[in-house]
């Protein structure tokens, strides 16, 4: 699969569009552009979703806190952003039902005066979602809330307000976008780093790149180039022209994972106002409890680390709102993502950060898109492709198709399909549920591999991931490294870093046999995977 991808990149073909960056935005642009009829190539220096796109809060949301700000400040811009994001929330849930779900969230209220205020705000949130509404907000008594959320702090609790947002599996979503784009004809290459941009008569014509796995260098020619590198957008723009003004600042958001006893399986908690004005979520995710996030200015680095101070901050809020104890030893994994807070360098006040995203075209023709959030990735991609084709040099293109387009794995997905996997392949129910929700209508392919190739064993005793997934992701999802499999094709590293670390040797053995690695390559892969799966633990 990779040999074919590299051959296409090195074929001296001039692509209509080269996308730099394989996160949510880049892969979303690839899907949009390829389905409109453009010849598309995408390169990512690490793996798809290795950066911010796999380090989110796992929510598909309109932004409750932004709505509050819009109302308080009578800010129509923020109001419209929330309304638009709620629409896109509905589209994502519809187009990738195997990877997403509606999730009820409750906000505990410890003052009667706050009840009507919060309820009115959340009913407006419902109203703004229009026909894409996924649930109705309501007030629940403290007694009923405690029955459903027994760990919630009882002292002073008056009531809770419930509302709905969406939840999804971000790393799987990004890989699914990459493979959906490939199915549409895009050439999608991970572990290919851009080392320079090429120009003719001052106009960008492509990029010089290096294969991070082999060290081989070559050039890719393209009529248009989009910089979709998230926090690294400034670095690519400065590669294009050294005097490029910065357009972003980095903000670090960390998350921790606790075991399932800290949250019900189908309901989350929103803490709407921390001491320093942040919002903290405690959510069920992949059978565990996800807590996040922080919002701290930071330097932009490749693989951000998690500080003990930030872990302690999140644990403190769990203690404040729960009647059960929690300690540092309860943390099963932790990760940090860098959110690019962007601004338009041509604006009069460049200190004012954009609320959503910006698209900039430099004199060379380089188009940069940065900012935004997972919820609006599809619309951001549509805007970026509209910008690419605005000059009229591409004829015969289809209109944007992504608003109503099912992603790979969703076309034949049936909500109760896990039962079929149990019946047809004899899989344990938890494994069947995991495969069904991870691969959608492709799950039977994984299950058949498990049966035919004797790869139905679990990679970690207490988790549903199985050996067949390793080979499936190599053959069908461009997994090249052990860390690609454990950190992004699966969610094991996020769910339980220690279990992921223990699974490294078996994954490396499977990949070595499949790809024919020598001992040096296997050892290098094991070392890298150990580094990537032991963050903060």
Automatic annotation (TrEMBL):
InterPro entries: DAO_C, DAO_C_sf, FAD-dep_OxRdtase, FAD/NAD-bd_sf, G3P_DH_FAD-dep
FAD dependent oxidoreductase domain mapped to chain residues: 16-377
Pfam families xref list: DAO (PF01266), DAO_C (PF16901)
Alphabetically ordered keywords of this record: FAD, Flavoprotein, Oxidoreductase
This enzyme's EC code(s): 1.1.5.3
Keyword Oxidoreductase: yes
Recorded catalytic activity of this chain's protein: a quinone + sn-glycerol 3-phosphate = dihydroxyacetone phosphate + a quinol
KW Isomerase (keyword) present: no
Family to which the UniProt record says this protein belongs: Belongs to the FAD-dependent glycerol-3-phosphate dehydrogenase family.
Protein name: Glycerol-3-phosphate dehydrogenase
Species this protein is from: Thioclava kandeliae
């Amino acid at each position: 699969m990779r040999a074919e991808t590299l051959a296409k990149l090195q074929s001296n073909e001039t692509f209509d569009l080269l996308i730099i960056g394989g996160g949510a935005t880049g892969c979303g642009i690839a899907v949009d552009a390829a389905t409109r009829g453009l010849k598309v190539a995408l390169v990512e220096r690490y793996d798809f979703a290795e950066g911010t796109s796999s380090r989110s809060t796992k929510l598909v949301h309109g932004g409750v806190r932004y709505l509050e700000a819009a109302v308080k400040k009578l800010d129509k811009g923020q109001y419209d952003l929330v309304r638009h994001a709620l629409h896109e929330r509905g589209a994502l849930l519809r187009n990738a039902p195997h990877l997403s779900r509606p999730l009820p969230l409750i906000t505990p209220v410890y003052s009667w005066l706050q009840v009507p205020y919060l309820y009115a705000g959340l009913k407006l949130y419902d109203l703004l979602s229009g026909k894409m509404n996924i649930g109705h907000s309501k007030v629940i008594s403290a007694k009923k809330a405690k029955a459903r959320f027994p760990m919630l702090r009882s002292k002073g609790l008056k009531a809770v307000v419930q509302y709905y947002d969406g939840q999804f599996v971000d790393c799987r979503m990004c890989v699914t976008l990459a493979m959906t784009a490939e199915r549409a004809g895009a050439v999608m290459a991970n572990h290919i780093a851009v080392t320079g941009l090429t120009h003719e008569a001052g106009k960008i014509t492509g990029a010089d790149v290096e294969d991070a796995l082999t060290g081989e260098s070559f050039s890719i020619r393209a009529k248009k180039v989009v910089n979709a590198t998230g926090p690294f957008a400034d670095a690519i723009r400065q590669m294009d022209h050294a005097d490029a003004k910065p357009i972003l600042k980095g903000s670090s958001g960390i998350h921790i994972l606790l075991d399932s006893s800290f949250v019900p399986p189908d309901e989350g908690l929103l803490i709407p106002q921390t001491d320093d004005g942040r919002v903290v979520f405690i959510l069920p995710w992949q059978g565990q409890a996800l807590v996040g996030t922080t919002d701290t200015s930071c330097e932009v680095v490749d693989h951000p680390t998690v500080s003990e101070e930030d872990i302690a901050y999140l644990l403190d809020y769990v203690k404040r709102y729960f009647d059960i104890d929690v300690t540092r030893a309860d943390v099963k994994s932790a990760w940090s993502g860098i959110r690019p807070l962007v601004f338009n360098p041509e604006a009069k006040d460049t200190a004012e950060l954009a609320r959503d995203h910006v698209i900039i075209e430099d004199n060379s023709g380089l188009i940069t898109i940065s900012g935004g959030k997972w919820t609006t990735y599809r619309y951001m991609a549509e805007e970026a492709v509209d910008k690419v084709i605005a000059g009229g040099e591409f004829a015969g293109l289809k209109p944007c198709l992504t608003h109503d387009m099912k992603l790979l794995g969703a076309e034949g997905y049936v909500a109760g399909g896990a039962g079929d996997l149990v019946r047809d392949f004899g899989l344990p129910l938890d494994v069947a549920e995991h495969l069904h929700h991870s691969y959608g209508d492709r799950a039977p392919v994984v299950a058949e591999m498990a049966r035919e190739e004797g790869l139905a064993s679990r990679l970690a005793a207490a988790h549903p991931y199985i050996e067949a997934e390793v080979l499936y992701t190599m053959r069908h999802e461009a997994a090249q490294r052990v860390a690609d499999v454990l950190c992004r094709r699966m969610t094991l590293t996020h769910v339980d870093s220690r279990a992921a670390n223990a699974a490294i040797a078996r994954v490396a053995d499977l990949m070595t046999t499949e790809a024919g690695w020598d001992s040096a390559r296997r050892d290098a892969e094991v070392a890298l995977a150990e580094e990537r799966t032991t963050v903060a633990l």
